[in-house]
Amino acid sequence: MENILAQKLEKLKLKNEEAYIAFNETFKWSSAKKGAILEHPNSMCKSMYILDSGITKQFRHKEDGTEHIIWFNFKGDFVTSFRSFVEQTSTNEGIKVIEDCEFLMVSREKCYQLAEKYREVETFFREMLEIYLIQSEERMFFLQALTAKEKYTYLQKNQPHFNQELPQKELAKFLGITRETLSRIRKYP
Known about the structure:
This protein is α+β, with helices and mostly antiparallel strands and 189 residues long. Helices cover 53% and strands 27% of the residues. The chain has a domain at 2-125: Sandwich (Jelly Rolls). The chain has nine helices and eight strands. Strands 1, 2, 4, 5, 6 and 8 form a six-stranded antiparallel sheet that branches.
């Protein structure tokens, strides 16, 4: 996602430098330590983040209280609970830091103000949302149609940084298997 984000920002700068400057001035730098919650489940998401370093996970809790990991976010990724961010309703999705992060953040209010003022910013957000939706569609297939071993093989091929950067505990939970099963899959691919 990092290269896509850089390309979209460059496109915004070329189309309207004033909009690009306003966009950059709106985002504020912040950081969070491992274990911090950026967005709590059952709350309204009011911010959008762009990771500069670290890793976050997006998750939900099942009825029995167990955590279900939806996705991981790495450097260059847009991070937010999109449904809550757009609709301004509570969500059962949370966002947790699993490796110390530095990020840019902006409020929903500022995003919408910029989008109203600059058509190019609105286009930027629409294009980023389109990319997110395409990736979501791929994730749904990945999560629903593949076995744990097929998921692991898919990640090795298409998202190698998952296997290289994620703690084994988090990767196993994401795949819906135990750490021991993940070890066996890694040992006997």
